[in-house]
Amino acid sequence: MSQHFSSPPRLIMGDGALEQLGRELPRLGTKVLIITDPGIVAAGILDVVTTVLQGTLDIAVFADVIGNPDIATVEAANRARLENAADVLIAIGGGSSMDVAKAVAVVATNGGTIADYEGVDKFSTAPLPVIAIPTTVGSGSEVTKGAVITNPDTHVKMVIVSDLMFVRIALLDRRTVAGLPGRIAATTGMDALTHAIEAYVAKGANPVTDAINIGAIELIGQNLLDASKGDEDALYNMLVASSMAGIGFHDAGLGAVHALANTLGAHFGVHHGTANALFLPYVMDFNVSAAPARFARIATALGIDTTGLSDEDAALAAAAAVHQLAADTGVPTKLSEVGVGEDAIDKLARDAFVQADLPGNPREASLADLAHLYRLAL
Length: 378
Ligand SMILES: [Fe+2]
Known about the structure:
Blueprint: E1 10-13, H1 21-28, E2 31-35, H2 38-42, H3 45-53, E3 58-62, H4 71-83, E4 88-93, H5 95-110, E5 119-120, E6 130-134, E7 146-151, E8 156-161, E9 169-172, H6 182-201, H7 207-228, H8 232-252, H9 256-268, H10 272-287, H11 292-301, H12 311-328, H13 345-353, H14 367-376
Parallel strand pairs: 1-9, 2-3, 2-4, 4-6, 5-8, 6-9
Antiparallel strand pairs: 7-8
The structure holds fe (ii) ion (FE2).
Fe (ii) ion is lined by residues 191, 195, 258, 272, 276.
């Protein structure tokens, strides 16, 4: 089977990254719609960006993005785009705001509703240009060629994917993550760690994605705990690692953790990073037999001394370390902590079984396996 690596959008990183907006924006359009959420406004991050933009282009703001955004969110943001005749979008926020902006960009030039484009390469006209300014440290949406939008009628998280969906520029600036609450750093950071680990062992992994994913796992292992305690250098390193993990997974693919987590999110609205953290250690254990040497390499990247250990033992140590890391950062480690019980599991397992990320998993997982993995997290 052939393997793929799509070059990601241009990253502008480090001190002064935001100031590059004034230079880049006029090349992309004339009227800007910023797409963000109320938390970003309250945290003062929107002000940081608009202050930088003062005197450049005409700017309107849509600040009503919700977590696990749905079709209605995309339609409301698209109405704001039409009312303001915006021809370039800036997403400021986590995966939700970035995915909504990417979805609006598709609908703007292709018409219809975002549900029309569920799947791979379902539209043909290039979307409006999007600039992404991530403010969390996990989704990787600033570098991936897709968006995830919930269909509230079916409780399915629709995945819309196309090579045309890369944003034009991703700006990684430490000012946008400096005050990130520890809980959000922890949960979104666990999402980034899940991306890198799942993609490193996924069926679509290749030497290019391997190098990026191992680098991301190392950086996350070194910084996630400190980031969850508010260390600003660690938060910036997590911001970069999160983009690396995004670049690493979008062609390699993901696996059973995301199948379980996306299904849980679609049914119960559980935060995506929290949902991943719940299942990552159990799925690692489950997958060890399919790729013991790869999991042993993950152990080394996480800083575990594997001297004298078999690949299997090193792999299990990696899963244990991830479990501990989640606990140390204060992320929920039990389904009961997010209000989900045994009665939901059969339905969740059935939906996870047909989730789009599952085929990338290195070990085939049956319906019974998925129910078992959900039960381990009860
Ligand atoms: Fe994810």
